[in-house]
Amino acid sequence: xxxxxxxxxxxxxxxxxxxxxxxxxxxxxxxxxxxxxxxxxxxxxxxxxxxxxxxxxxxxxxxxxxxxxxxxxxxxxxxxxxxxxxxxxxxxxxxxxxxx
Length: 100
Known about the structure:
Helix content is about 40%, strand content about 25%. It is of the alpha/beta class. A 5-stranded parallel sheet has the order 4-3-2-1-5.
């Protein structure tokens, strides 16, 4: 299954823990897991758990405009994207979960 998780909450919210659990569960089931960070969710890119998810096989995307607004440096394991990129990910996914 192609699972897309969209995160707009900061890494100190309960949503972040939910995101990590959903992603790990999907990876354990051998699902294709994509995670898109936007708005304050781009702060999650600074959290070690997100890097670990990338190392475990999740594809990490983020809104470049939102990250730039928050002065978040690009990470080599995360792909810069946009709202257009998000719309493509949504159309390609079988399940979409938005956490905000």
